[in-house]
From TrEMBL:
Alphabetical UniProt keywords: Fatty acid metabolism, Ligase, Lipid metabolism
Domain AMP-dependent synthetase/ligase: start-end pairs: 26-405
Lyase keyword on record: no
Domain of life from the UniProt record: Bacteria
Domain AMP-binding enzyme C-terminal: 455-529
A GO MF label: ligase activity
Pfam families linked: AMP-binding, AMP-binding_C
Family matches, as PROSITE patterns: AMP_BINDING
Biological source species: Psychrobacter luti
Protein name per Swiss-Prot or TrEMBL: Fatty-acyl-CoA synthase
Similarity-based family: Belongs to the ATP-dependent AMP-binding enzyme family.
Enzyme Commission number(s) from the entry: 6.2.1.-
Length: 554
């Protein structure tokens, strides 16, 4: 046997920690004058910044934070919309040695307090838009250094220790920063939505952030210098790692403070946006934008959708606009997207309905993810690849979190048997593609039969009047549980309960047809995820009502 180990160890010459910080260094060196950031709201802001300028500002941010006392593994929290400062924080904070904690901009005061306390944040960069929290933060966390991130679009009275620009200006060195000494070092802390209890702190490492950023490029065949529009919240899984992806490709970050369909369409046309990501609700908003703004777009636009499968209606509308939509899947615990519905050439010959059925699947593992499997519940035995047998989706690889902050038990449970168990149920098809059928907690058991809420929702989405929908269980004296459909229709649309029932009967077995149809606004998180826990609470009252009373349309 040949000895391939003795005298062949790791050293500084042949082994360096992976970190996405290297991406901005390279772009600044190779493409210093290429545009890195555009902030154009067509009204108040019109900023353009090169990669050299952005790299310099990130180094200034790192130095400024160090002067405030930030050291290795100190948490720097940020609560901002998708502004240039958020892009800079993706690099400047880890360059300071700190760990970036991006906070959900829709957190209520209790959840915000929990995250600040649990993360032990030493600095909070707070945007003007969230100035209402400043007084509470000052009273509750007197030792927390608050930085006021201002914006020309907002006229807010000054708060905090200094402004973000003053923090940048406080730097007197471009060399007071560092890269990780170990790629297992934490780069970011992301809190789960906390819809079923207190949020959990998901810890990312430099290695995973680097690999996910590169995997995004491979999965999307992303060329150099893409024009990327920030329709996806940068606080959500660090924007699915796309701040680092765009830096690696020396692309352009087109920043966006708010989600507005007409503004999005105007920016896509004006700046020739090539790529964007979002939940289905945003894609639907874009598809419903003003015709004159849609007609002004004369180039191909690529979009990723996650959170729910793309519907036939949405795909048809997007294709008519020249948009190409791909379905990806992921969770906070895996840095964002880690599977992709890799499209096959023969799908192009299918009609929209058949193509939508193919593209609705979660697909196959992304390029740099190691394992993606469906196991029979409670085992490590894979389900049959027959499109019928349901199992729990599990993942493994370098793009899985370090674990949950301050929760060894939850971390050990999540990694049982050497796999990360997602809690999602699905089936595998003969071609190896996986399709999620439901969450473990969302399966409806009616008369002993399992009903996939996602299957019923997919049928409802075939109706063009449906903008958003969610199906949950309501208790029932005879059947144990029955499906309930909450439906939000497009503005100006009219839809009656009888129309919905008839449509469902044409596409579903009788026991799967919703017994209650409720027309209402669907509660969602800031990332577009339906908050089913709220709907389950509403559905519990239906056990004491009749379908006739509860199913009236608005």
């Amino acid at each position: 046997m040949t000895d391939f180990h003795t005298g062949l160890g790791k050293n500084a010459a042949n082994h360096q920690p992976l970190t996405p910080i290297d991406f901005i260094i390279r772009s600044a060196q190779v493409y210093p004058d290429k545009t890195a950031i555009i902030y154009d709201d067509l009204e108040h802001n019109n900023l353009t910044q090169t990669w050299q300028q952005t790299y310099d500002r990130c180094r200034q941010l790192a130095d400024g934070l160090r002067k405030l006392g930030i050291d290795k593994n100190d948490t720097v929290a940020v609560m901002m919309p998708n502004t240039p400062a958020m892009v800079e924080c993706a690099f400047g904070v880890p360059m300071s040695g700190g760990v970036l904690c991006t906070l959900n901009t829709r957190l209520d005061i209790n959840a915000l307090s929990f995250c600040l306390q649990h993360s032990e944040a030493k600095v909070l960069i707070l945007d003007s838009e969230f100035a209402e929290h400043a007084e509470m933060i000052d009273e509750t966390f007197p030792n927390l250094i608050v930085i006021h991130a201002t914006d020309a679009a907002l006229d807010i009275e000054r708060f905090g220790s200094m402004s973000y620009e003053e923090l940048i200006a406080s730097s007197d060195s471009l060399d007071n920063w560092e890269k990780p000494t170990d790629e297992w070092d934490a780069i970011a802390l992301n809190y789960t939505s906390g819809t079923t209890g207190k949020p959990k702190g998901v810890v990312y490492h430099h290695r995973g952030a680097t690999l996910n950023a590169v995997s995004n490029i491979l999965d999307w065949d992303m060329p150099k210098h893409p024009m990327y529009l920030w329709t996806l919240p940068l606080f959500h899984c660090n924007g699915w790692c796309f701040p680092w992806t765009i830096a690696e490709r020396a692309g352009v970050n087109v920043c966006l403070r708010k989600i507005d369909a007409d503004l999005i369409l105007q920016l896509i046309a004006k700046h020739k946006v090539t790529h964007y990501c979002s939940a289905p609700v945003v894609h639907n908003m874009i598809a419903g934008g003003k015709p004159e703004y849609k007609e002004a777009i004369n180039h191909e636009v690529k979009g990723w959708v996650a959170g729910a499968p793309p519907s036939e209606t949405m795909l048809a509308a997007m294709e008519a606009m020249g948009f190409h939509i791909s379905h990806v899947y992921g969770l906070t615990e895996v840095y964002g997207p880690v599977t992709v519905c890799a499209e096959q050439e023969e799908w192009d010959a299918l009609d929209v309905a058949a193509r939508a059925q193919k593209k609705s699947r979660q697909g196959v593992t992304s390029h740099l993810m190691t394992g993606f499997e469906l196991f029979k519940q409670g085992t490590t035995e894979p389900v049959a690849a027959d499109g019928e047998e349901m199992g729990e989706l599990a993942l493994r690889g370098n793009m899985v979190m370090k674990g949950y902050l301050k929760s060894r038990k939850a971390t050990e449970e999540a990694f049982a048997d050497g796999w990360f168990r997602t809690g999602d149920l699905g089936v595998k098809y003969p071609d190896g593609y996986i399709k999620i059928m439901d969450r473990l907690k969302d399966i409806i058991i009616s008369g002993g039969e399992n009903i996939s809420s996602i299957e019923v929702e997919n049928v409802l989405y075939k109706m063009p009047e449906v903008q958003s929908c969610a199906v949950v269980a309501a208790p029932h004296d005879k059947w144990g549980e029955v499906p309930v459909a909450f439906i939000e229709i497009h503005a100006g649309s009219t839809l009656q309960r009888d129309n919905v029932m008839e449509h469902c009967k044409q596409h579903l077995a009788g026991f799967k047809v919703p017994k209650y149809i409720i027309f209402a606004e669907i509660p969602k998180t800031s990332t577009g995820k339906v908050q089913k826990f709220e709907l389950r609470q509403a559905a519990k009252s239906l056990a004491h009502e009749t379908p006739k009373v509860m199913a009236s349309a608005k």
